[in-house]
């Protein structure tokens, strides 16, 4: 049974710009797998997107959607003039008759509000936990009136919403063929992510200073003053800022590390960098917070640590030799391959189309 799918990307940035965060990777991976399975598909995305083989439809408009994670709970919805989000959904309205299912990847109010106005069914893959009252309300309304159409990445993320039991949990998936298993690591620890306060980098740096084990830092320096504050606070920490690397280069460097430290201050819906590390055979040391609590298999593929406890990180580092790196790769192959994610996603789509 083949479907005609219309994927609606995030308005945060053109595909390939990196501005769309984890959603860019998620959308591209699901699209690749759906095409491989024989489904027809088009991706609607802001102008300026680059995408090797994926069929994209670029839409003009202002990329000025406020990042939802920067809003406070009571913030109202803001839609600017010539919003690319509004333009993308006007295009979807015009072509909806050519598709069996529309899949929304944006964490925005408009696609959810428009759902009852469309004839074509719409699936929403929600990329973050509960952030604002107005988003919670509209997601709940759709979850109730359009059963099975709300997808999430983890039970912990779903649990941030009052309607958790109405959410379909999809985990996430990667193209494992671009992640090479590395059996023999160097001594280095790794930290990967946007360098921004909610990612808690300072704790990983503190652990490197205490243990004296070098820490390689990968990621986009989003908040320069935050980075400079860390350097002033830990002048002797053995850290090296590698920079933002594209996936193929990142996995090569990450794979050589003894462990990935994951130190989020906020509830990460999932943990894309964590499954990238597992795919390379790299054990995880992560705060017991958010989606990571469902990824780390305690004592087998890593250790979960008391949130915000640097001492906990230091303690876990001492036990790294107990972890078999092959087991880490195995978990990625069992749970996070494109095949496994494709099965979960296809099943979700069928469930909606059977409604
Ligand atoms: N904020 N308003 C808004 N819309 C999005 O689609 C969105 C966002 N913030 C972050 C984000 N998407 C992606 O980076 C996700 O990967 C989290």
From TrEMBL:
Gene Ontology terms for molecular function: glycosyltransferase activity
The UniProt record lists the keyword Transferase: yes
Keywords, in A-Z order: Transferase
Pfam families, alphabetically?
Answer: Glycos_transf_1
- Transferase as a keyword? yes
Q: Which residues form the Glycosyl transferase family domain?
A: 190-329
Xref: PANTHER family: SULFOQUINOVOSYL TRANSFERASE SQD2
* The protein's name in its UniProt record: Glycosyl transferase, group 1
Q: What is the native source organism of this protein?
A: Nostoc punctiforme (strain ATCC 29133 / PCC 73102)
């Amino acid at each position: 049974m083949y479907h005609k799918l219309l994927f609606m990307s995030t308005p945060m940035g053109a595909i390939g710009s990196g501005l769309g965060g984890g959603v860019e990777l998620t959308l591209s991976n699901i699209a690749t797998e759906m095409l491989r399975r024989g489904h027809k598909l088009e991706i609607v995305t802001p102008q300026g997107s680059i995408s090797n083989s994926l069929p994209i439809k670029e839409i003009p408009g202002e990329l000025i959607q406020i990042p939802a994670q920067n809003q406070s709970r009571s913030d109202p919805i803001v839609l600017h003039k010539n919003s690319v989000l509004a333009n993308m959904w006007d295009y979807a309205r015009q072509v909806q008759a050519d598709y069996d299912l529309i899949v929304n990847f944006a964490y925005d109010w408009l696609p959810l509000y428009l759902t009852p106005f469309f004839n074509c069914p719409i699936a929403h893959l929600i990329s973050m936990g509960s952030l604002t009252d107005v988003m919670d309300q509209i997601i709940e309304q759709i979850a109730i009136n359009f059963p099975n159409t709300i997808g999430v990445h983890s039970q912990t993320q779903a649990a941030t919403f009052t309607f958790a039991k109405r959410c379909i949990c999809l985990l996430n998936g990667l193209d494992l063929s671009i992640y090479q298993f590395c059996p023999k690591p160097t001594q280095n620890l790794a930290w990967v992510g946007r360098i921004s306060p909610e990612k808690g980098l300072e704790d990983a740096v503190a652990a490197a200073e205490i243990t004296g084990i070098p820490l390689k830092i990968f990621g986009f320096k989003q908040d320069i003053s935050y980075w400079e504050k860390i350097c002033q606070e830990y002048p002797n920490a053995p850290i090296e800022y590698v920079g933002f690397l594209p996936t193929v280069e990142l996995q090569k460097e990450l794979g050589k590390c003894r462990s990935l430290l994951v130190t989020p201050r906020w509830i990460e819906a999932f943990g894309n960098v964590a499954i990238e590390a597992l795919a390379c055979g790299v054990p995880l040391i992560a705060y017991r917070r958010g989606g990571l609590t469902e990824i780390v298999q305690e004592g087998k593929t890593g250790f979960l640590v008391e949130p915000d406890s640097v001492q906990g990180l230091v303690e876990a580092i001492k036990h790294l030799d107990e972890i078999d790196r092959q087991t880490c790769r195995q978990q990625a192959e069992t749970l996070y391959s494109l095949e496994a994610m494709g099965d979960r996603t296809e099943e979700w789509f069928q469930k909606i189309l059977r409604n």
